[in-house]
Amino acid sequence: MPRTVRDVVFVDGVRTPFGKAGPKGIYHETRADDLVVKAIRELLRRNPGLDPKKIDEVAIAATTQIGDQGLTIGRTAGILAGLPQSVPGYSIDRMCAGALTAVTTVAGSVAFGAYDIAIAGGVEHMGRHPMGEGVDPNPRFVSEKLVDESALFMGMTAENLHDRYPQITKLRADEYAVRSQEKAAKAYADGKIQADLVPISVRRTNADAGETGWGLVTADEPMRPGTTLENLSGLKTPFRVHGRVTAGNAAGLNDGATASLIASEDFARENNLPVKMRLVAYSFAGVEPEVMGYGPIPATEKALAQAGLSISDIGLFEINEAFAVQVLAFLDHYGIADDDERVNQYGGAIAFGHPLASSGVRLMTQLARQFEEQPHVRYGLTTMCVGFGMGATVIWENPHFEGDK
Amino acid sequence: MSTTAELLKGAAELFPDEVVTSAHVRHLDLPSGAGRFALITLDNGFDHTKPTTFGPASLANLGLAIDQVEKEAAAGEIVGVGITGKPFVFAVGADLKGVELLKEYDHALAIGKGGHEVFKRLAGLAVPTFAYYNGAAMGGGVEVGLHCTYRTVSKALPAFSLPEVFLGLVPGWGGCTLLPNLIGADKAVSVIVENSLNQNKQLKGQQVFDLGIADALFEGADFLEQSLIWTANVLKGDVTVERPVVDRGEAWDQAVARGRFVADSKVHGAAPAAYRALDIIAAAKNGDLQQGYDAEDTALADLIMGGELRAGIYAFNLVQKRGKRPAGAPDKNLARPVTKVGVVGAGLMASQLALLFLRRLEVPVVLTDIDQERVDKGVGYVHAEIEKLLGKGRINQDKANRLKALVTGVLDKAEGFADADFVIEAVFEEIGVKQQVFAEVEAVAPAHAILATNTSSLSVSEMASKLQHPERVVGFHFFNPVAVLPLLEIVRGEQTDDASLATAFAVAKKLKKTAVLTKDAPAFVVNRILTRFMGEVQNVIDEGTPVEVAEKGVEPLGLPMSPLVLLELVGPAIGLHVSETLNRAFPDRFTVSPNLKAVVEAGKRGFYVYDSGKPELDPEVAALLKQGDTVLTEEQVRARVLDAVAQEIGLMLDEGVVAEAQDIDLCLITGAGWPFHLGGITPYLDREGVSERVNGKRFLAPGTASVPA
């Protein structure tokens, strides 16, 4: 049977405010599944024209699929969110690129014609599920030297990346981090972030962490506006003595969830749903696990080649800031300046936080806002590095593009 | 220190064991830049299995929280104040344990005043206040929200009520006054009086919203978030709350009159709480809140110092606690699994039992009888009942298929009972018949199978006496209608062993019945007391007192129905049969009424005709009655009857029919529907001095179901 590939669009995306993992974090007493459930509900509330019965899939990513992130969270979150029982769901995992992979996977199904519309998102509660919880790496990794021992520790892989690119100094990384905080603070002040946040009620019973009782989270907890180079210069380098990676030039350990609607363009238009971005190409690539931060480069190469585009066609970049060095490696590769205004206009994960498997949709939600504001831009990309040596890139087209007119 | 604080401190000293609720104040930024907000969380620090309550120290904590937000509101630091509960629970009202301890009127008065003084400050803040009913809300929990400017309710809220009248109180922390002023007198009467007297009916979130108690309704999944977003919109003026204008005209008086009618039909004037609540609702018509609060304080104090409330709390605890942990039941670990049930007989009672076992145990149930036609009829009844449940949407098609497939009928007991773990008989009430049935069952059932009898008056030990294994016979006495009345009298025969008894209790629990252990004494508990009670009424009629005087004599008890209406429900023939059985056992106390005999022989189904819509003595029955010439007054009738009941209960306790008077009361409440305000009956007999007069002592120690000395 001949098939026609269909255009796939990003309809809408929302997220919870991100929290700091740990006993004093805002979500310490909040379940991971509740976070993603509330994101899904907000997504549906924002799009009342969408009949929930028409949703074909719920794909939810989590890196640590245990406890409240286990039990096939895509299915359980759908039921908890009040979706009809007829809507199926599944779980997905590509560590940091979980939500991004949820998007591309359902997008592939939409393009193929299997789905008309699907929910794709992710959640990571790193307070309840610390990185590495329950892992059991095969001893052959070490005995056969399949990977360097540092490959399992993301901070060490970032240090390794600094080794590979000596021109990326700690100073450059810190300067980049300061700018990320500044841009994020400005984006908040300009009201660019809040509109896509889902307020989350949070309970606190531990008085050491602050006022007890129920509260409401309406903003990202990790942000440190006003951060200066001086503040950062004195921070410890926990991954290596005299190293370069610090808590200041990397994303923290965070809790949060995201959700997006991915549909065929025809379905979105027929159902009067917004079309915020059009999918152009996506690609994943593997690199040496011990320099996983390099991953976005080959992934982007592949995606650009697929799309028949060059880097100069990309007008906006949303790069996940797991580590400043990983962003800088990407920028250096393409000859883009550290402070290029096309890159992470609203700041990035260094400021907002990076709850692993949820972050991909945050990049998309922010890119979608930027597309709307900047109709002169035709293409943008979202990219991230992934643990165990991978990169993931999605190229998007701006449906508001006015360049042809 | 303010007066309220002193008041509450004094009360807290009387109640050192209070589970104290904290009132946490946490600040948050409302969405959409609506401003800084203070949210109070009521939380006793336990999970939802121990719901949050208000004792004096808890009220004081809330008072401190309000002190804080009051200052912030006055200083313009916050734009509003909210109040909500821990997960699944808002707050379930006053801590009844504290109420039981109160022995002085002034202390009782302080409880009412203390609550008012704290709660009403929520209405007096410089900023609007919002209650978010996130979960179970009862009594004082509901009331604290009524003092707020606005309310939201969760669609997932399972239980919302003002149960005070049910227990013997009035909603006295503002409920009687504020609710009618919020939603009108008629709806308030429904919530405060009608629901309470209708077995403490609970409202769900949707109904709370539909009644107008809450201004907005949100789903459970993100109830608090949506409530706070709504709050922001209200405060910004984007949402305007409009409530229907309350009709303060004739409708108000009609509502109160309707409430009195409801109360009369349920408690017949015998318990004061509903009437006190209605008086306050009636007075609330003028909208004067403080006057209402003062009336609530007085009513609360009066009721707290009265026997009806003490009996009500006692009865509530019996049903909630003793009913769930039966006194004298053996170690539950001795119970054997029951994976198949046999029912001997396929008549109406047997079929009802089959249905009950089927629905609750969900194991194969097999009916037997003497011919195929009866067996088919029994199975047909069960199938029809399953269809009815399906039709009402109580079960789905899969469950209906499953249940129908589980029930079968056979003629051959060997085929039916060979692998049954529990066989119950419901055949004709005749000892020889029952003995034969059990002998047949024993011949075919496994050695471990429990043999249970639903006899209402025959000796369980005698029934077991001819068996090879009499230790596995237990009495399992249900009350009609089986699906409605919770009581199950579990009778231990002389030879019944602990494992069989433990299995019987385990089955009872699965059947969701209130099990009470009784000795193998004639007619066990409920039928013996009811027969003595009705027998004494019959005696005074036989001796010459007019029927209506005899009936009126016991009316002040507020029983669910008069003795002769009850006789009609039971059936005069059965009533006569039981009285004959008891007469054989205790001829000095149980008489067989010649008049009742005549009525039964005449084929009458009761004493009354209802042609006028009200019960009137059937002229044909009147013609049958042969009365003496001793005419008693209503008071004399009441004394005669109560003396007889007190004597009988005293003897039953001496005989060890049940462990304690509490079990008698539990049986009467759950098996005969005797009211909470009597506490079953022994609290009433104690407080009216009947126990002392007849037996020379009380049934219950002072302070149990009464005001402590």
Automatic annotation (TrEMBL), chain A:
**Annotated PROSITE patterns:** THIOLASE_2
Enumerate the spans annotated as Thiolase N-terminal domain: 8-266
GO cellular component terms given for this protein: cytoplasm
Where in the numbering of this chain does the Thiolase C-terminal domain appear? 275-397
Q: Name one Pfam family in it.
A: Thiolase_N
- Catalytic center at which residues? C96 (acyl-thioester intermediate), H354 (proton acceptor), C385 (proton acceptor)
**Mind listing the UniProt keywords for this protein, alphabetically?**
Acyltransferase, Transferase
Give the InterPro entries listed for this entry: Thiolase, Thiolase-like, Thiolase-like_sf_Thiolase, Thiolase_C, Thiolase_CS, Thiolase_N
Q: Which GO terms describe its biological process?
A: fatty acid beta-oxidation; phenylacetate catabolic process
User: Which GO MF terms does the UniProt record name?
Assistant: acetyl-CoA C-acyltransferase activity
Family that this chain belongs to: Belongs to the thiolase-like superfamily. Thiolase family.
From the Swiss-Prot or TrEMBL record, give the protein name. Answer: Acetyl-CoA acetyltransferase
Species the sequence originates in? Streptomyces griseoruber
From TrEMBL, chain B:
The record, for CDD domains, names: crotonase-like (cd06558)
| Recorded GO MF terms | enoyl-CoA hydratase activity; long-chain (3S)-3-hydroxyacyl-CoA dehydrogenase (NAD+) activity; NAD+ binding
The pathway this protein participates in, as annotated, is: Lipid metabolism; fatty acid beta-oxidation; Lipid metabolism; butanoate metabolism
Reactions that this protein is recorded to catalyse = a (3S)-3-hydroxyacyl-CoA + NAD(+) = a 3-oxoacyl-CoA + NADH + H(+)
Swiss-Prot/TrEMBL GO biological process terms: fatty acid beta-oxidation
Sorted UniProt keywords: Fatty acid metabolism, Lipid degradation, Lipid metabolism, Lyase, Multifunctional enzyme, NAD, Oxidoreductase
Query: Which residue range or ranges hold the 3-hydroxyacyl-CoA dehydrogenase C-terminal domain?
Result: 524-606
The residues covered by the 3-hydroxyacyl-CoA dehydrogenase NAD binding domain are: 340-520
Quote the InterPro entries the UniProt record gives: 3-OHacyl-CoA_DH_NAD-bd, 3HC_DH_C, 6-PGluconate_DH-like_C_sf, ClpP/crotonase-like_dom_sf, Enoyl-CoA_hydra/iso, FA_oxidation_alpha_subunit, NAD(P)-bd_dom_sf
Q: Which family does it belong to?
A: Belongs to the 3-hydroxyacyl-CoA dehydrogenase family. In the central section; belongs to the 3-hydroxyacyl-CoA dehydrogenase family.
Protein name according to UniProt: 3-hydroxyacyl-CoA dehydrogenase
Organism per entry: Streptomyces griseoruber
